[in-house]
Structure formats: structure tokens, C-alpha cells
């Protein structure tokens, strides 16, 4: 064994350029293997962290009974089953941080513009809906939200302020704009109290929202107080209203059970609460999908490395035919020749596995530092990498070694 190792080391050192090129494939394959598993674990941990911060603290309540009854002055639209004091009722539940009701205002193609529309104002009401076309506010949605729902969205203000309970109680015509909607309307500041016109009706813009944690569709739209929307446009029609509840971590399932009864103790069946999904199921699914995809890429890299070692070792056998013949003439048996070339290829594979493991671990740590994540790298992944490299080198050198062992000494010496 000592002689075989010495001969293998001599063969590797005597051809450093070829040895380096031979190990490149194994380095890439093993490095990809370690990096893929490490980055998958790291990204999955980051997904789990984001999930626990957002999804695990979000509960929605759907209005199942919307449209079953109509109230006075609703123009035939279904009444809303959420009470007027929904924000206060939900906030009283232990574990609720912010909560409120929101919906999309039931207007057909509302004309939203930064300038007054004389035609729409003259149409006044239902005629405005049909007369309005795709004006400068085309594509901008109109949403109604109570102050509690607004806070539950966790908006990030670009400028201005959020409307509050004062505006809600008085039904003030104030509005918030998402940053994309504000750009479409050409509004960049709120200190001069700009106005936005909805079918000719003016709303004062009190703030511009640059981002929201929940309900991202509101960014390309205009948000007004729910009391103002009820007074001007009636209850929701096409899409039912929903309650958005932001809870403390771990309180979501309990709040989902309590919310319908707190909102409608007389008819809780009219409301359906949707609790947060199971975070473990999502994390496991994401981890499985990512691991399966990238491990295929790592396997391809290892296959390329195996072929590279096999090709280089086979070329080395052909070039060293005279050496093999001399060894056979001096008494070496076929198994000695096989052991020599297998030892060389296995050593090259192990060297590539060590370098690949170090490169993969460095890739995981560097990526985690660049993204401010916590690097997650299982020890068995790094420890198994050199063994994978050795197995790759052994498998790659098996055929060339057997071919070298079958060379006849006389034929080899004639060359």
C-alpha cells in the first residue's frame, strides 16, 4: 500500500498541470453539491423567518353573507355584514395588534385624475360611471379601508401621513396614494395638499405610501376611509368586504376562532375567518423543491468531473504504455498496475473533493454575509464531500486502470 501511494503521488506531482485540470471537474461538482445544500438550508431558514414575521401574524375574515340583504339607500347593492365598530371589536381581542375592514369600492371604471373633470362632474352619479373613459387615472384602483385595516397593512410612508379615526368618524374626503399611482397622477408631495378627483369629486391627498407588508394591490390605487366610501358609493358589490387582522406571533389560530363571534355574536356564520397556513409545511415544500432542482445541477457537475478524470486517466494510460510494459517486465502483476492507476485517480478525486468542499462552504458564507442572512451549513454535508470526491475518482479511474492492466509487456515494450 505504501509503494502504491508513493507511486500515485509521484505520478500526480510529475504532471502538475494535468493533475490540476483533472481535478477541476471534481472541484466544480463537489463545490456545487456543498453550496447547493448550504444555500438551500440558508434560504429555507430565511423563508421561515419571513413567514413567521408576516404570514403567521395575518388573519383574514371573509363576508359570506354579503348580498343577501339590502339596506336603505344602497341602490340594490347587498348590505355589508361587518358592524360599524369592527375595528374596536377586533382590537379588543387579546393578541390582536391592528385590525379593520377593507374592500374595493364598487365603481365601474372610475375616472381618477389629478385635475377636475368637468364632464364627469356634470354627469353626477350613475351617469359618470358610464360616461367615464380611460382618463389620466386609467388603471388606478379605488379601495376603502378603515384606519385599523390601514395600520394592519403596515404601510411605509414616502411622504405625508395616514388618515386616522378623526377622518373616519367625520367621513372626510381624504385619500392615500400608492407610490406607483402617485407617479401616474404626477403627485410627488403632500405639503401643498394636492387633490385627486374621482369622477369629478375632490379628495385631499394626505400621504403617499411607498410600500405595504399586506395587500400589495393597494399600491397601484387610491385608499379612502371606509365611512367615506359607504356614504358616497354604498357597500361593496362585486367583491365582498374583508377584515384584515394583524396578530402577535402565535395568536393567529386563536384569533381566527374568536373573530367571527366578536364581530357578529348574533350571526357568526355570516363570517368566515382564514387562519395562517402551517409554516412547517411551506418551509418543507420550499426546501424539497429547491434541493431537488439544485442537486440535479450538482449531479451534472459531478458527471462532467467524472468524465474529465476518466478521459485524462485514459490518456495517461496510453502515454505511459512503455512504463507499464517495463513494470510488467520487472515482475508487476496486472493487479499492481490496476491499483496504481486507481490510487492516482482516487487521490485526484479526494483532492478535488477537499478543494470543492472548501469552495462550497466559502460560497455559502459569502452569500449569507452579502444578503445579511444567517448561514446554515450541515456538518455532514462538508464531511461527506471528500468521500464523494474519492468515489468519483475511483469510478472514473476504474476503466482506464483495467485497460492498463490488460496491456501485454511485449506489446508495450515494442512501442
TrEMBL record:
Isomerase in keyword set: no
Keyword Electron transport in annotation: no
Membrane-spanning ranges: 20-40, 293-318, 339-362, 382-402
Domain of life: Bacteria
Location of the protein in the cell: Cell membrane
Residue intervals of the ABC3 transporter permease C-terminal domain: 296-409
Any one Pfam family match given in the protein's UniProt record, by short name: FtsX
Membrane topology: Multi-pass membrane protein
InterPro entries, alphabetized: ABC3_permease_C (IPR003838), MacB_PCD (IPR025857), Macrolide_Exporter_MacB (IPR050250)
Domain MacB-like periplasmic core: residue ranges: 19-251
Record keywords, A-Z: Cell membrane, Membrane, Transmembrane, Transmembrane helix
Family: Belongs to the ABC-4 integral membrane protein family.
Protein name (database record): ABC transporter permease
Amino acid at each position: 500500500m505504501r509503494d502504491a501511494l508513493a507511486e500515485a503521488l509521484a505520478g500526480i506531482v510529475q504532471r502538475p498541470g494535468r493533475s490540476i485540470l483533472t481535478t477541476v471537474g471534481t472541484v466544480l461538482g463537489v463545490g456545487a453539491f456543498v453550496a447547493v445544500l448550504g444555500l438551500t438550508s440558508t434560504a429555507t431558514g430565511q423563508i421561515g423567518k419571513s413567514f413567521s414575521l408576516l404570514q403567521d401574524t395575518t388573519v383574514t375574515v371573509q363576508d359570506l353573507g354579503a348580498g343577501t340583504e339590502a339596506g336603505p339607500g344602497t341602490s340594490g347593492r347587498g348590505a355589508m355584514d361587518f358592524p360599524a365598530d369592527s375595528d374596536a371589536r377586533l382590537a379588543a381581542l387579546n393578541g390582536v395588534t391592528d385590525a379593520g375592514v377593507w374592500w374595493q369600492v364598487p365603481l365601474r371604471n372610475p375616472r381618477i385624475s389629478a385635475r377636475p373633470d368637468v364632464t364627469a362632474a356634470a354627469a353626477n352619479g350613475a351617469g359618470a360611471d358610464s360616461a367615464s373613459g380611460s382618463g389620466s387615472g386609467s388603471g388606478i384602483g379605488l379601495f376603502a379601508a378603515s384606519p385599523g385595516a390601514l395600520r394592519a397593512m403596515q404601510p411605509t410612508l414616502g411622504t405625508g401621513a395616514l388618515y386616522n379615526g378623526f377622518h373616519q368618524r367625520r367621513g372626510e374626503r381624504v385619500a392615500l396614494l400608492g407610490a406607483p399611482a402617485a407617479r401616474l397622477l404626477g403627485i410627488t408631495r403632500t405639503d401643498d395638499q394636492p387633490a385627486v378627483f374621482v369622477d369629478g369629486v375632490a379628495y385631499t391627498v394626505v400621504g403617499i405610501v411607498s410600500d405595504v407588508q399586506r395587500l400589495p394591490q393597494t399600491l397601484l390605487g387610491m385608499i379612502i376611509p371606509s365611512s367615506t366610501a359607504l356614504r358616497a358609493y354604498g357597500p361593496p358589490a362585486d367583491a365582498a368586504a374583508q377584515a384584515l387582522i394583524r396578530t402577535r406571533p402565535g395568536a393567529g389560530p386563536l384569533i381566527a376562532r374568536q373573530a367571527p363571534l366578536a364581530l357578529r355574536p348574533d350571526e357568526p356564520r355570516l363570517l368566515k375567518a382564514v387562519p395562517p397556513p402551517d409554516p412547517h409545511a411551506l418551509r418543507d415544500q420550499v426546501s424539497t423543491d429547491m434541493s431537488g432542482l439544485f442537486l440535479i445541477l450538482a449531479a451534472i457537475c459531478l458527471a462532467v468531473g467524472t468524465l474529465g478524470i476518466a478521459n485524462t486517466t485514459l490518456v495517461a494510460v496510453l502515454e505511459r504504455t512503455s512504463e507499464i510494459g517495463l513494470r510488467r517486465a520487472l515482475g508487476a502483476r496486472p493487479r499492481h498496475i490496476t491499483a496504481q492507476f486507481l490510487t492516482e485517480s482516487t487521490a485526484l478525486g479526494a483532492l478535488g473533493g477537499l478543494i470543492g468542499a472548501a469552495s462550497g462552504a466559502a460560497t455559502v458564507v459569502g452569500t449569507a454575509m452579502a444578503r445579511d442572512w444567517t448561514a446554515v451549513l450541515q456538518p455532514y454535508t462538508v464531511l461527506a464531500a471528500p468521500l464523494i470526491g474519492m468515489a468519483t475518482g475511483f469510478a472514473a479511474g476504474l476503466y482506464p486502470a483495467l485497460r492498463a492492466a490488460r496491456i501485454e509487456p511485449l506489446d508495450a515494450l515494442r512501442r
